[in-house]
Amino acid sequence: MGDFRAQRMPSPEGRGIARGRWQQAWDAYSRAVEKAAAPVVEPLLRPITSRIGAARAEETLGFWLLWHLEGGFEGLQRLGMSRSGVYRRVAAFRKLTGVHPDEFKLPGVTLDLEAYVAASASTGPQQAEPPPIGDEPDTTS
Question: What is the pLDDT of residue 1?
């Protein structure tokens, strides 16, 4: 096998062919989704994002999504969130929305949990081992 270090490419992406194609596909998808979803979703999210900012809204709604996709409190712990971290996020979510993430419904968003579980099962285990009940993970090391 030859040594390809002497035949350098312009970047780690090579000539950027795959990345360029991916970017074109993503841009087309993004435009289609925005065209269809923006009129419905934007008015629903505007009150949240105007109060807390886009980054915080993304974090809050991402937490809500993971809460449901992973099965709530214990599912988030299986992902590696500490018990106190989950409690903090639930409190922040309730402060913002007025309801627990288990009860919150985002109009226009439907979760297909069966498809998510099937896809997760087919890609193999990707979760951290759950911590023992009642113990906090050791964060000192």
Answer: 53
